[in-house]
Amino acid sequence: MLQQSSPLPAPTPRSKAPSVQSSTVFNPHYNSFNTASKIVVALERISEAFRVMLWQESKANGLSPLQIQILIFLAFHTQEKRTVSYLAQEFNMTKPTISDAVRVLLEKKLTEKEQNLEDTRSYAINLTVEGRTIAERASAFANKFDAPLVQMPPIEQEHLLGQLMSIVDSFQKEGILTTQRSCTSCVFFSKHSYSEAHHCSFLRQTLSGADIRVDCPHYRPVS
Which residues, in sequence order, are CB contacts of 82 under 8 Å at separation 6+? Predict the structure, then answer.
């Protein structure tokens, strides 16, 4: 009499491929073979590191990330830029959102209003002593990004800056970024067609690629 054989074990199900196979930078099956997409993902990872460190600073000071960013901006920019309208443009947010953040900073006595004598509806936002202390201490988190960059040879740093500025310029032209204070969109800037050097009529000097500024205090937009 033949013995009945035991049933074979069920086959292990194979893992299914992701349902989305579109050509998006977030699809590893696509970006693995696309250099531009890998660069975008790398930039997103750097942005995530920035957000994490900004969140840590805001949590340590009992503020929101936006409120910390506003304090830092106020600490390093001139009075005409320290208004609700300008901050809304700077951070690509609505005036009510910025007003709410500023209101909290005023309540915490980290900022104070300076009324515009020519227009009583307008005011500048200044830091108090405590607000400036927090802003200068909190701004140091971004210094961590310097460490890997300073290890690069100067020529590589200059090349990277130029490539990143090209990306920033393209976003501004598309209207994604509304505020930029860099040389390439400034009325004082001129590019020499016969060389890689540029010129700033405000500073009255020739600019190399490394001299291009990202946030210039003398910036004036091209009308």
Answer: 74, 124, 125, 126
- Asked whether 206 and 195 are in contact (CB, 8 A), the reply is no
| Residue of 167, 183, 173 whose CA lies nearest to 218 | 183
Q: Which tens digit of pLDDT belongs to each residue from 120-177?
A: 677 899 999 999 999 999 999 999 999 899 999 999 999 999 899 889 888 888 888 8
Locate tokens 């209003």: which residue?
A: 113
Q: How far apart are CA 158 and CA 181, in angstroms?
A: 18
What are the helix and strand counts (H, E) for the chain? 8, 5
Query: pTM of this prediction?
Result: 0.80
User: Which residue ranges form the domains of the chain, and what is each CATH number?
Assistant: 36-142 (1.10.10.10), 154-160+180-223 (no CATH)
Q: Which residues contact 134 (CB under 8 A, 6 or more apart)?
A: 61, 63, 68, 71, 110
